[in-house]
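chain below, 237 aa
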Amino acid sequence: MASWNPWHGCHKLSEGCLNCYVYRIDKKHGKDSSVVTRTRDFDLPVRRKRDKTYKIGPGDLVYTCFSSDFFVEEADPWRPEAWRMMRERGDLHFFMTTKRIDRFLNCIPEDWGDGYENVTICCTIENQDRADYRLPIYRDVPIRHKMIICEPLLGHIDFCDRLGTWVEQVIVGGESGDCARVCDYGWVLSIREQCMLRKVPFSFKQTGARLLKDGHLYRIKRCDQHAQAQKAKIDIP
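prediction:
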């Protein structure tokens, strides 16, 4: 597993961005996260070692652009080269998330077709408003591998029969950080039930820092949020 951030920084777009972890981390270092810059690791997927083999070995999963959004407007000049590197490294699988699925068709390369087999593009939604806006777009765009990320989950979401075999998985998680908003466990279970009905794999990734369950508000340390979610044993493989 590898991480590749070809550019860094992003401007906030919707409610889910309010307590963005990138902004939170950058603030500690006096850095302005709203300024999008190309990073020194821009060419990481095609870098080679002295023996001419790639630094990222074949078969790796590459978490892509997690300190920005791959489809952010400021990255338009750099994106064609990033796509080219993904084509060159067909032996890797690139995994990314976006809140800008409405920009997707304006940002793909000429040879995209139905999508690159080695690229998963996940659409993030945090509430009903963003589900209603983003999911109809996401369902219809040509991407080989699609997952829905409900994180940070900020309210009840009714998928309105939009789930189906076109979705490989739905992942749910609460919000982390000192200012985290509450995640209601009932919202999580509702999404799980909808996934069960449509036979879509489901994963409860993390509880978030504040989880409301059975009328009790639990405050959960960052280091325990993933483990506590796993203890719920509600994933659907």
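The first strand starts at residue 2 and ends at 4. The two ends are 20 Å apart (CA to CA).
thats it, cya
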